[in-house]
Design goal:
CATH class of the largest domain: Alpha Beta
InterPro entries: Ub_conjugating_enzyme, UBC, UBQ-conjugating_enzyme/RWD
Protein name: Probable ubiquitin-conjugating enzyme E2 W
EC number: 6.3.2.19
Strand order of the largest sheet: 1-2-3-4
CATH architecture of the largest domain: Roll
CATH topology of the largest domain: Ubiquitin Conjugating Enzyme
Strand content: 25-35%
Distance between the termini: 35 Å
Order of helices and strands: EEEEHHEEEEHH
Shape: globular
GO molecular function: ligase activity
Largest sheet: 4 strands, antiparallel
Helix content: 10-25%
Structural class: alpha+beta
Pfam family, one: UQ_con
Number of strands: 8
Number of domains: 2
């Protein structure tokens, strides 16, 4: 296998990227390997942004021009780091017509780290949404990929909500609910393969 190894310095983090014959990238950082398609990343222009601000401007433009179904960007802060998104439950789901507000905070090392997403109160009663608003979704944790757009992450969240058959809280909600939303530094326990 012929590989081209590049070392990219982003802030104080060093990332190694291997380009393979099949045009997929394997990215290693913090000991974790991620794989994503070169063409998809480069065609979106998301995986190669020169800086944080430009990436967020493109993300906002992408979201406003083609938002996920039943989602609306309510506001962004002046520094682009905080978004509020209104999600209305899709027709035919147990959340049909119910409006929820999602808060998104972009950390300094975004996109290497996922955005922090949580629901403001009232939160949806869902087996992967804690009553404090935190969301147990692997796309925001262990399965996060730096080339994922905010729109695609929200689409994963909408899909998770839409697939619910009953309204209930996670089994460990009582332990987690006392923490401030978005500040959990503990890893989530994924209770099933649907989150």
């Amino acid at each position: 296998m012929h590989c081209l190894a590049l070392v990219i310095s982003l802030i104080p983090i060093v990332t190694t990227v291997d380009v393979q014959k099949n045009n997929s990238l394997k990215k290693t950082y913090f000991g974790r390997r991620l794989r994503f398609n070169v063409h998809k990343t480069l065609s979106l222009g998301i995986g190669r942004t020169p800086n944080f601000k430009e990436r967020l401007i493109r993300e906002e433009e992408l979201f406003r021009s083609n938002p996920p179904q039943n989602c609306e960007l309510i506001t962004t802060s002046r520094n682009l780091r905080i978004w509020l998104v209104r999600i209305t439950g899709l027709e035919g789901t147990i959340y049909e017509g119910e409006p929820y507000t999602l808060k998104i905070i972009f950390p300094n090392d975004y996109p290497l780290k996922p955005p922090i997403m949580y629901f403001l109160k009232p939160t949806p009663t869902h087996e992967h949404v804690y009553s404090n608003g935190d969301i147990c979704l692997s796309a925001l944790g262990t399965d996060y990929a730096p080339n994922a757009s905010v729109s695609s992450l929200i689409l994963s969240l909408v899909s998770m909500l839409s697939s619910a058959k009953e309204k209930r809280r996670p089994p460990d909600d009582q332990l987690h609910a006392q923490m401030p939303p978005g500040e959990s530094d503990a890893s989530y326990v994924y209770h099933d393969d649907k989150c």
